[in-house]
Specification:
Keywords: Dioxygenase, Oxidoreductase. One of its GO terms (molecular function) is ferrous iron binding. The chain is of the alpha/beta class and 284 residues long. It has a single domain, classed as 3-Layer(aba) Sandwich (Protocatechuate 4,5-dioxygenase, Chain B), CATH 3.40.830. The protein contains 10 helices and 10 strands. The strands form 2 sheets. An 8-stranded mixed β-sheet has the order 6-3-7-2-8-1-10-9, with helices on both faces.
């Protein structure tokens, strides 16, 4: 049976993609950010997951304001990024796992989550940057797993509640664990943390709230579901609603997790950048 071994979180700022392309790992601006990843690399080198469920939000490449599904799951054999105007280079296709995708989609619908299934889905920086951060060299890395993108709406209101996001993750866990093949799965919760890119509060970062969320999500994610959508915008910024994807990830890990690593650095491109490694119970 499929086994979820842990969850990883990271910001997916497009500027990170450029920093990776230009190998700016030791640049004074970027070094504190990239220094947060070696413990995650060591864990991935040890456990070598077969599949990464990459939970992100599309920023207008695959979907736009005229058609924005609340939850969409990729069901393709591969995924390709395209030019978004950020200067991030186009990468080779990321291999998918269509068989597992359809099993998950079937399971989520059976558990009463309405899913948009995507047999074609261009992926943006929200998907590609985490893959490059966690698997150095990405396509040149022999351990890079097959990937399944799950897109959540954090752009066009009304967006899901934090409770709905956590419940999605719980249903995702059941859908994955019912898959009959013996594979190891890691869940990526990407985006955030607090940031606002426009309006009167452009440049807004809330370190205190980010720290609170990074603490509570480990052992008490249910407490975070008390935060309303409007409160989330107020405390995390208009784009900080991406914390929804962290909650989706956390729901998929089960009740008990061990926090093996976390890093927080500000600012990276006007964003509070958080990284976490959460290991599921029973993982050797």
């Amino acid at each position: 049976m499929a086994k979820i071994i842990g969850g990883l979180t990271t910001s997916h700022i497009p500027a990170v993609g450029n920093a990776i392309a230009n190998e700016m790992y030791d640049d004074p601006y970027w070094k504190p950010f990239f220094d947060g990843y070696p413990p995650v690399w060591e864990w991935l080198d040890k456990h070598k997951p077969d599949v990464a469920i990459n939970i992100y939000n599309d920023h207008g490449l695959g979907f736009f304001l005229d058609k924005m599904p609340t939850f969409a799951i990729g069901a393709a054999h591969e995924y390709v990024n395209e030019d978004e105007g950020w200067g991030i280079p186009q990468l080779p296709p990321f291999p998918g796992d269509a068989k597992l995708s359809w099993h998950i989609i079937e399971g989520m619908v059976a558990r009463e989550f309405d899913i948009t299934s995507c047999q074609e889905l261009p992926v943006d920086h929200g998907f590609t940057v985490p893959m490059q951060l966690f698997w150095r060299g990405a396509h040149a890395n022999p351990d890079m797993p097959r990937a399944i993108p799950i897109s959540a709406n954090t752009v066009q209101h009304p967006i899901p509640t934090l409770k709905r996001a956590l419940d999605f993750g719980k249903a995702l866990r059941k859908s994955i664990e019912s898959y009959p093949e013996d594979i190891k799965v890691v869940i990526l919760g990407t985006g955030g943390l607090s940031h606002q890119l426009d309006g009167e509060r452009a440049g807004f970062i809330n370190r205190e709230f980010d720290t609170y969320c990074m603490e509570k999500i480990i052992d008490d994610p249910e407490e975070l579901t008390k935060i309303t959508r409007m409160e989330l915008v107020e405390k995390a910024g208009a784009q900080g609603t991406e914390f929804l994807m962290w909650m989706m990830m956390r729901g998929a890990l089960g009740d008990n997790v061990k926090a093996l690593h976390k890093n927080y650095h500000i600012p990276i491109s006007n964003t509070g950048a958080g990284t976490m490694l959460l290991e599921c119970e029973g993982v050797d």
